[in-house]
Amino acid sequence: MIDTSVLIARESGRPLNAALFPEELTVSVITIAELTASVHAAATTDIRARRLATLDSISSLEPLPVDAVAAREWARLRYRLAEAGRRLNVNDLWIASIALAHGLPVLTQDSDFDVLGGLGGPEVIAV
């Protein structure tokens, strides 16, 4: 499952290691929300157009929802993070939980996911 950071990297021209991408990609509803919020927050029409193009580029993907399994994984990971004295942005925690609920790795350029190491989170692949 691709994290929002991967789509932002592509939008901004940062390099991505495409060799690490699986054949089939998916996103979570959280990524849809983050990208949509960035469209609303765009300061100029040019930025808004770029962000809309990024959002449109994933319109054919069926986003994975927050369901009961993901909610339980979220609660478990949140507890494990607190127990370990670590923190993770709430949206990133949802993305990780949705990926875990579906048995998928998270492809990301966001090192924030590193805090999940050793806590039973999803596989995190830095691209």
List the helices and strands and how they pair.
Blueprint: H1 4-12, H2 29-40, H3 45-56, H4 68-83, H5 90-101, E1 106-108, E2 124-126
Parallel strand pairs: 1-2
What does this entry look like structurally?
The chain has 127 residues and is mainly alpha-helical. It has helices at residues 4-12, 29-40, 45-56, 68-83, 90-101; strands at residues 106-108, 124-126. Helix 2 (29-40) runs antiparallel to helix 3 (45-56), helix 2 (29-40) packs antiparallel against helix 5 and helix 4 packs across helix 5. The relative contact order is 0.21.
Q: Give the overall average pLDDT.
A: 97
- The H-and-E topology, N to C, reads as HHHHHEE
Cα-based radius of gyration, to the nearest Å: 15 Å
**Helical stretch tally:** 5
- State the low-pLDDT regions, or none: none
CATH fold-level assignment? Rossmann fold
Q: Compute the number of structural domains.
A: 1
> How many beta-strand segments?
2
The 3D shape can be described as globular
Which class do the helix and strand fractions yield?
A: mainly alpha
Instruction: Provide the spatial order of strands within the biggest beta sheet.
Output: 1-2
Features:
127 residues, Rossmann fold, 2 strands, mainly alpha, globular
